[in-house]
Amino acid sequence: MEQRIITTSDRPDLAAQSDEALLADWPEFILHDRCAPELMGRAWQLFPQFDVRLLEDGAVTAGGWAVPLRWSGEAGELPDGYDGALASALAGQHAGEAPDTLCVMAVAVDPGRQRAGLAGQVITALRDRAAEAGLRRVVVPVRPTLKSRYPLTPMADFARWARPDGLHIDPWIRTHQRLGAGILGPAPRSMIVTGTVAEWQDWTGMAFPQTGTYVVPGALDLVEMDAERDQGSYVETNLWMRHA
Ligand SMILES: CC(C)(COP(=O)(O)OP(=O)(O)OC[C@H]1O[C@@H](n2cnc3c(N)ncnc32)[C@H](O)[C@@H]1OP(=O)(O)O)[C@@H](O)C(=O)NCCC(=O)NCCS
């Protein structure tokens, strides 16, 4: 099988196919982060070299994107998470600041090609590009795939759940660990999704008949529903990891 890494700017014709393959496995509500869509569009335009796709025999089977930003190297000075990193990268670019860190925003693999190490190839391609661009550090606000089964557990506790072999119980954290990454700590307000009760019902296929706190499939934290204000809010905690 022929494998090749390209950027979306090399092959804009692949955008539709790429979206179909790579968005299939995300819970719908996470695509409604209010701050993200406009900023994401700007980031893809400004940093196309960090928006990569893996082609296998000409078809998109995996992809990932990242943004360059400036970071002191102190865990306490990281942005709040995904939204914060995006805002920081765009503000830094606007201010003419020289970035020193690549922040990997998302990686996705076609459901039919998962468990074959493709995510690792995408991360490696992004790390290589960071090195080529002179960015000394690589960080990721990781969205652990298993965390949605433990929405009541704080991320700080989940972060410590290791197997006897020392690797994490979460498969997505393990992929980063096998590539040499270490855990820095929770990214407390990584993504924020708000919507009306009807929108949340549409996104999740669940009914929310009264004000309260709900467990929602695919959500890493609980969702707060306010029937009187007709608003549902979700604040997702991710986990900062740093690659060697
Ligand atoms: C998370 C994701 C990127 C991993 O990609 P991948 O190429 O399958 O990853 P790997 O082949 O390195 O597999 C890593 C581990 O995850 C496990 N895994 C992969 N896909 C899985 C699935 N659908 N269900 C359960 N486990 C899975 C693998 O078995 C492996 O576990 P191991 O450590 O015991 O060997 C992919 O599952 C995906 O696209 N998910 C949807 C999008 C997403 O959640 N992205 C991460 C947030 S940015």
From TrEMBL:
Keywords: Transferase. GO terms for molecular function: acyltransferase activity, transferring groups other than amino-acyl groups. The keyword Transferase applies. InterPro entries: Acyl_CoA_acyltransferase, GNAT_dom. Pfam families: Acetyltransf_1 (PF00583). Coiled coil: none annotated. Transmembrane segments: none annotated. Residues 82-144 form the N-acetyltransferase domain. This is N-acetyltransferase.
